[in-house]
Structures are given as structure tokens and as C-alpha cells.
Specification:
The chain is of the alpha+beta class. It is 53% helix and 9% strand. The protein folds into two domains: 2-80 and 195-202, Glutaredoxin; 90-192, Glutathione S-transferase Yfyf (Class Pi), Chain A, domain 2 (Up-down Bundle). The protein has helices at residues 12-22, 41-46, 65-75, 90-112, 121-146, 157-168, 180-190, 193-202; strands spanning 2-6, 26-30, 54-57, 60-63.
Amino acid sequence: MYTLHYAPGAASQLVHVTLLECGAPYHLERVDLEGGQQHGAAYRALNPHGHVPTLVVDGHPQHECAALAMLLAERHPEAALAPLPGTAQRADYLELMLYLANSVQPAFRHWFYPQEAGGDPAAIKDAAAARIESAWQHLAARLESAGPWLLGDTFGVVDIYAAMLMRWSRHLPRPALACAPLADLAARVTARPAWRRAAEIEGLPAWP
């Protein structure tokens, strides 16, 4: 039994959907971000960074949404959410997961919280939006050449991750759904029962 500490619509959504795709038993603990629960001593004991998600695995709290999704895919290979080591798609999978984690998600952090980066907030948001739009072009090109999923014919956690980040862009000057290949990917991911169930549990509106 896993325990997922989450907040609706936050980065924990990737882990929540992945848990449902795996069919693994889990328990949810909601973290009240607006009330500052993430800064309290009890939660900091689980996650010293004060971020969500935290996933308790075999009694041990683990962090970072991309790492947690990759861990779940490895622990539940029967769900076929990631290419196995030694397979032809493994390198592309690792590259895409780290690209989303290291290049795309941090740009959203700058968009949502420009004051954390220092400097002119408007300029920081403009730069973040440009980075995000560049990422959409990169992912769209990949889908056009090797779709319908980011790894070709095989759905996996990388598609869930991309869809979550695409959802975050819905209020940006150029949201992901303005790009047809990404809109098609989002429609396929969000039509899956696991995505819909996670959204229902978290009380999120239907998207796209």
C-alpha cells in the first residue's frame, strides 16, 4: 500500500494517475497548500523541501514527481508504462522524462512564481513562456514524426507527464492546446479512465 501526499492539480497529479494506471493500492493524504500545511513540522518531516508530491513507499517517504512516476513504472512492469532496460526505446524514454523534469517543469515554476528567480517579474515570465513554447514545438515535432504517443505506438508515464504540464499551460499566452499534435495527445491521455478517475477524486474540472 502506497500513501500519496498530494494537492489537486499540482505535480502530484502525475503520480496519482500513474498509481491508477498501475492498479496499485494506495491511500491519499491531501496537503493544504493554501493553508501552508506544507511548511508545518509534520509535513516537513516527510518532505524537507515542503513540496508535493510525497509518496510513502514501503514506509519510506520519497519525492520528485518524475522520479516517483519512473519508480512506479519499474515496480509495476505489468502495467507497461515504461520501456524495459535494454529495449530500443529506453534511451528515448529516459531522455524525455529528464527533459520534462529539468527543462519544462522548472520553466513553469518561473512562470507561476517569478519573484523566486529575482529580477524583473515580467521579464522572467516572458522568458519562461518562451521556454515553454519552445518545448511544445519540440514535443509536437516528435509526435508528428513518431506518434501517436511520445514514444511511438506505446503509451506510458512520459505521456501522462506531458499532459499534466500541458494542462498547466492553459492560462499562458500560447497554451499547449493551440498546437494540434499536442491537443491530440492531450485528448488521448485525458480520455483514459485513470486520468478521469484522478481528476474526479481531486475535484478537477474536465480538461481539455
